[in-house]
């Protein structure tokens, strides 16, 4: 049985997907929520809107790995993303993903991130980026567990 540490199971990663800006299309957000719900079979996962002036990711999640989406970030295929999730699981370190608003990430956030990743060199609506990221999170967990979904 896993030991509890700081109110959560030690060795078990938790996924946080934060986004800046109100969702304009509830259908796209429903897609993201569906994929995070599926990922929740493997690890606790949640998605919510944040306001940078009211929430400091580094203060709220001091030991988590902060992975921010940025067009200038590292391009990553699904296999590399799977390794990122696997590393989080091995370390038992929560993973915080953040997607900026229409103006991108708040000033100073990129410099403080543990990792900047880019979903694509193309530009997508932020709601679609949420759905794409949530799908990749689920795909990574399914791959790691040998589930047939990623095939």
Strand count, sense and closure of the main sheet? Answer: 5 strands, parallel
Order of helices and strands: EEEHEHEHEHEH
Terminal Cα separation, in Å? 32 Å
Shape, principal axes of CA atoms: globular
* SS elements, strand count: 7
Structural class based on helices, strands and sheet pairing: alpha/beta
Low-confidence stretches: 1-10
What report would you give on this structure?
The chain is α/β, with parallel strands linked by helices. It is built from 5 helices and 7 strands, in the order E-E-E-H-E-H-E-H-E-H-E-H. It has helices spanning 26-39, 57-60, 78-91, 109-112, 126-144, and strands at 4-5, 8-9, 15-20, 45-50, 65-75, 95-99, 115-118. A 5-stranded parallel β-sheet has the order 4-3-6-5-7. Strands 1-2 form a two-stranded antiparallel ribbon. It is globular.
Please tag this protein with its features.
151 residues; five-stranded parallel sheet; two-stranded antiparallel ribbon; 36% helix
Write the layout of secondary structure elements.
Elements: E1 4-5, E2 8-9, E3 15-20, H1 26-39, E4 45-50, H2 57-60, E5 65-75, H3 78-91, E6 95-99, H4 109-112, E7 115-118, H5 126-144
């Amino acid at each position: 049985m896993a030991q509890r540490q700081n109110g959560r199971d030690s060795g078990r990663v938790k996924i946080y997907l934060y986004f800046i800006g109100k969702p304009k299309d509830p259908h796209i957000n429903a897609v993201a929520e569906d994929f995070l719900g599926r990922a929740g079979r493997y690890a606790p996962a949640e998605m919510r809107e944040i306001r940078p002036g009211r929430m400091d990711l580094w203060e709220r999640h001091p030991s988590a790995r902060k992975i921010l989406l940025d067009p200038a970030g590292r391009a990553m295929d699904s296999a590399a993303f799977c390794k990122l999730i696997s590393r989080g699981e091995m370390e038992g370190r929560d993973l915080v993903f953040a997607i900026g608003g229409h103006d991108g990430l708040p000033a100073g956030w990129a410099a403080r991130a543990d990792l900047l990743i880019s979903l694509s060199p193309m530009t997508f609506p932020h709601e679609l980026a949420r759905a794409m990221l949530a799908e990749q999170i689920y795909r990574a967990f399914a791959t790691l567990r040998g589930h047939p979904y990623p095939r």
